[in-house]
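Repro:
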Amino acid sequence: MYNDNLAYDLSIFETDEDFEKKKAERQKKREEKAKIGITQKKSIGRNGSIMAALALVSFVALIAFGLLWSKVQISDYTSMISETKNDIELAERENVRLKAELDSMYTIDNVENIASQELGLQKTQSSQITYITLNTEEMTEVAQEESNIFVSIQNWFNSVLDYLGF
């Protein structure tokens, strides 16, 4: 049989005893490595898993507390908004009542009663009325225009625009 590999397989020349010894040595090494690996993994795994679990539980508790706190804040703000809306509604009703009361106070009858009873005023009689005649003539004075070259140019330009229809 032709082999491309330049290395020779020397295991062909080994005896069964040598083979069994090497197999036993390999098995021992595997078991030692497994023991070392298992003990290291257990200590690292246990310590790491406990710390990771504590960290995870702490993180979840923190998130839950944060969510609960935000719900409490939302509830507080909702109740404050509700109370403020009630206060506004109450103030609007009071405003409507006061406006109605104010309107009822300023009727003609109310004003006459207050004027006559509290202030002692009386209605005027025809003998107390005096008519005054004034000069009703209207009189206007027109100021004379100043005439210079610029005013005359402006007047000519305005008359041209009026003629053209602008």
